[in-house]
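User: Before I run my own analysis I want an independent prediction to cross-check against. Here's the chain; please return only the structure tokens and, at the end, one sentence I can use as a sanity check.
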Amino acid sequence: MVAETNKKTDTSTEIDAIRGDIQKMQNDLKDLLHTVGDQSKEKLQESKQKLEAAMKSFEGQAAEKINESYDSLREHSHDAVQKSRKQIEEQPITAVLIAFAAGILFDRLIGRR
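Assistant: Structure tokens:
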């Protein structure tokens, strides 16, 4: 009977030790999850900052390209106007005849509708 009581005591002690180990594992797991969560927040914040920097860079590059395109278009249109003026000055009668023919053609196309 003493042996049986010792077995129950040993079993109770082992169960208590297992419970303690389980509790320790739960606490360790909570700590680990908390640490992982903090690291995830940091990584997310870093990713957000990188994305914001990339967006600002893209905006800057896009604005620069738009400005370059606008300047190029303005320059080409200015050149075209200058060439047209020069052509009209050099051949005014031809320019008047071309404008007259274009007017007639335009009138016929619009007049048919």
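Sanity check: Residues 63 and 83 are 30 Å apart (CA to CA).
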